[in-house]
Amino acid sequence: MIRRGIFTRSAACIQVLVLAFPGAASFAQPAAVPGPPPFRFDRPGPIEAPKPEAPVSLTSSDGTGLKLSRMTARAVVEGPLAFTELQLAFENPEDRVIEGRFRVVMPQGASVSRFAMKNDSGWQEGEVVERAKARAAYEDFLHRRQDPALLEMAAGNEFSARVFPIPARGVKELIISYSQELGRAEAPYALPLKGLPEVGSLDAAVSAGGEVLAELKKTSYVPARDFEAPLPAAGPSLGLRHGELAVVRVRPVLKSQPEPVGSLLVLFDTSASRALGFESQRRLLAALIEGLAKGSGPGTPVTVAAFDQTVRLVYEGTAGGFGDEAMASIRKDRALGASDLMRAVEWAAGALKARPAKRVLLITDGVATQGETGPEELAAAVKKLKAAGAERMDAVAVGGIRDEDLLKRLVTAGLPKDGAVADGKLPIEEIGAKLTEATSSGLEVAVEGASWVWPKTLQGLQAKDDVFVFARLPGSKAFKLSIGRRVVHTPPESIAKSQKPLVERAWAKAMIASLLRKHESADGSQAKAKVQDEIVDLSVKHRVVAPFTSLLVLETAEDYVRYGIDRKALADILTVADHGIRIVQRPPESIRVPEPQRPSELSLFDRIAGNILPAKSMPMAGAMASLDGSAGMQGSAEPPAESEAFQPGAAGADYDTSMAAPDVSYGGGAMAGVSPMLMPRPSAAPEPSPVPSVAAMRGAEEARAREEMGSRQGAMARRMPSRLPPDSPHPVPPGVSAEQPQKGTPPYTGKFKDVMELIRSGQAQKALTTARSWLEETPGDVMALVAMGEACEALSDWTCASRAYGSIIDLYASRADLRRYAGARLERVRGGLDLAVDSYAKAVDNRPDHPSSHRLYAFGLLKQGRHRQAFEAMAKGVAQRYPAGRFRGVERILAEDLGLIAAAWIKAEPGRKTEILQQLTAAGGVQEKEPSLRFVLNWETDANDVDFHIYDGKGGHAYYSQPLLSSGGELYADVTTGYGPECFTIRKPRSGRAFPYTLQAHYYSRGPMGYGMGKLSVIEHDGNGTLGFEERPFVVMVDSAFVDLGGVKR
User: Fold this and answer.
1) Which of 397, 414, 435 delimits the end of a domain?
2) What CA–CA distances, in Å, run from 295 to 41, 292, 349, 490?
3) Which of 101, 256, 963, 1050 lies at a CB distance of 3.0 to 4.6 Å from 463, suitable for a disulfide?
4) Residue 919 domain flag
5) Whether residue 767 sits in one domain with residue 900
6) Count of domains for the chain
7) How far is C-alpha 797 from the geometric centre of its chain's CA atoms?
């Protein structure tokens, strides 16, 4: 951090644009007062990002990019609205079927109306469906190996979709269409292209009034800029009407009023999402402060802080003193970590009291991923800056993925003067002008004769701002608008008649925006649920994807019927043809409603197992068809998780098959905790002995078991060990060699393997350099971030490790699986528990239908000493209904987990024992009052099979087909369809356990999901409420690999 100079006052300014909230301000503006320019720039023009985010991509779940072989874009402009249709073809470079992650960055304010996927029978349209229902249907279909796709809103203006299957070496074709408001009268229509890798074939055209305005055709093309089409000149107002609905863009007549800056505090976003545009963002900061020094004077006081999941003071001094040293400090820290806007604002409150400044400037994408992320809560925190002396906050919105709506809320949160939001892509002189111009707020919007108008008030308005007004009024009435009690001229010829769907969708989007505000301020869960239902209804009816809905593509019309999804929204699908918007009218479909199967009609296997066959049981499918007459094993399943890749290894130790793994050693004190210790790996298996080994005996048993797999009896035994008695445990006979842990394929490949081997060989600093270079080549690569975290842990650089793992949260904030995995990593980092618990909490909100979300969150709260909250969190997990046929054995695991938490709570508050036990019984938990040691395995990939293997010190081996150890202990169930958890519990006091235990995860089959990642939890209970924990995250990248999860010794 650099400190220079003294406080002085001079001129400068900051500002922001916002369109929606109440207040009371005069519309009239005083005459502009001439004065010195508060910013002066020697090099005007935009500051371009050298590597912007690609606006469209499709990647496999483990990060492999698919080539965009063809892109056809057709756009039609009508008045102030535009409709765009993209047809995309992606090539899968892998020799396996995969699930893909499709993402598209929309123009600000755009709304998706169509998502379709091509399958063998042609184009299958997506339906707007309530989000939880859509996820359940998608994931069930994925497990049936059918062809679903699911598109949802992600962070800011990004939409993300899960697409399955993408054929091996095949092509996946998608259509996505969206409508948008053209916010600036002078701006051209723009199709985002910059940032795309090479496109095999590009064909784009923009039309208006039936005529082509611009077109672009290229082959083997790497776009250097967006495709733009200049639009016909428009007056101060431009609108469309259909029947009772009207949408009009107007520019209220305002005079520009300067507002100087006497002192400035800058909050500069350095979170991971800023990596691609980080250098241009740094140049933007330097240019603004240099321009402030030249325009307002070099003595203007300036404070700069960098924020992500932490806040770091970078510079204190004057505008003239800001330079290379401060910029180098920002570059050295890089763009890493999650984005905690609340922490940044609260830090600013303290900083302003110590070093006053009238103005606060945010340079950020506005996407908060950690801590409090609600608009109302963040706005309330900004308002509190008034007490610290702040008068105005402004923002410069940077990056392709951004949340300008949130930024507008913050800069008009209630400081003495409202600010503005400037687009970071604008020329630097225009940004400076917006930051030095006063705003008008509290301007009431009224349309004569209208029954509904949005927005009701305008905030943060500047002289050249265009605003959109939506209204419902009788079709016979003229559109007469007033803003701030002044009439705004809207000549009839500027408002054209249009087709219903385009206007109606724009109106519905505005209605949803008004309801989202109502949802934020609704008091209580019931009130919020009622408003949410209204939003869902509007979204489904008008095909406008909203925060509580998704676009779901299933394979056939009958599939929608099976899930109770009404296809009436298909009536108004828009497309582009003959240079205009066309409506695809579809007659009501003649669909045979499949009669629900009665229990007696289900196949025997489905009635007993209720699940799909795992890869290792696939030979059974033919047998079941022949025995039952069923067509195969396509039982119900659960959400295909969001996945990616990673693995463990703390300072100097990881769990590779070739490395020594940490062991848990118990000793001293009454369960003070679980302490990891390194222990030599068991020696290699001895030479073959004339006496058969346990491994050979067990191998013969497994061969027999595989033969039995072809029979129904074998299937039931394999799939339902919790319902049928397991095989008896096999004690090791005298003279028989003990079974040794497996030595399978090494679990790592590629650069991740290089980094892990460097760490193993004691070259942690070189490993960090390698990981950083990898991350610079592919910003956002999850494996690169995990590799960096591993290297930082090996160096005991806990801040670096925490920011590396926090980056996974920032880049994949809407993915519960990656939030959970990042949390598992953070728990192992010194000081990382709070961030981990926050991430777990958001995973619960995102995917309450995943039991691991509840388990990780509840135990995280317990580690924080929050016993009551931990109990309540786990009780919600126990009460949650999970998809049929998924998460086998989870009810037992969660009930016992709740009992463990209750035991710890009773120990902390013994006076409440009776009350706590009553709550435990009511919640369906199991009282835990005996000593136990349990190993719980969960992983963050769906539709794949990870097997848990436990070896004891007496040569015993427990796994899916032999769940019991003769020395004591039971593996509850084998989960073959993704996520886990799988639990092995030893219910004996420490003296009766067969230490040491060696633990392995076998990545049996990755299916379409790619790399495996997860963690092992070791939990010991002394029987009296004292719990010890150790968390061991892991990664496996290769099929059939065995990952050493370490040992546990006395």
Assistant:
1) 435
2) 8, 5, 27, 39
3) 256
4) yes
5) yes
6) 3
7) 26
Q: Quick check: is 368 in a domain?
A: yes
Distance separating alpha carbons of residues 951 and 962, to the nearest angstrom: 12
Is the bond preceding residue 587 a cis peptide, omega within 30 degrees? no
Provide the residue range defining the domain that includes 613.
599-628
Question: H-helix or E-strand containing 246?
Answer: strand 245-250
Of 955, 937, 1026, 941, give the one whose Cα is nearest residue 997: 955
**417 and 269 housed in the same domain:** yes
Closest to 944 measured CA to CA, from 64, 167, 142? 142
pLDDT digits (tens, 9 = 90+) for 649-666: 333 333 333 333 444 443
Q: Two tokens at 251?
A: 């520019």
Rounded CA-CA distance 694/685 in Å is 11
The CA distance from 905 to 887, in Å, is: 27
Residue 781's CATH number:
1.25.40.10
Phi, psi for residue 365 in degrees, rounded to 5: -90, -10
In tens, the pLDDT along 754-784 reads 999 999 999 999 999 999 999 999 888 999 9
Please list, residue by residue across 1019-1048, b when 16 or more beta carbons sit within 10 angstroms of its beta carbon and e when fewer do.
bbbbeebbbbebbbbbbbbbbebbbbbbbb
- Establish if 521 belongs to a structural domain: no
DSSP one-letter string for 127-165: EEEEHHHHHHHHHHHHHTT---EEEEE-STTEEEEEEEE
- Scan for tokens 């996927």, then name that residue: 117
CATH code of residue 414:
3.40.50.410
Whether the link from the prior residue into 167 is cis, omega within 30° of 0, is no
User: Is 762 contained in some domain?
Assistant: yes
Quick one: pLDDT band at residue 693, thresholds 50, 70, 90?
very low
Tell me the C-alpha to C-alpha distance, in Å, between residue 175 and each of 171, 459, 553, 827: 13, 37, 11, 41
Nearest to 343 by CA among 313, 308, 376, 375: 308
Query: Which of these three, 399, 418, 435, is where a domain ends?
Result: 435
pTM here is: 0.83
Question: Measured in Å, how far apart are the chain's first and last C-alpha atoms?
Answer: 48
Do 785 and 924 fall within a single domain? yes
SS3 track for 313-369: EEEEEEHHHCCHHHHHHHHHHCCCCCCCHHHHHHHHHHHHHHCCCCEEEEEECCCCC
By the 10 Å C-beta count (0-12 exposed, 13-18 middle, 19+ buried), 72 is classed as middle
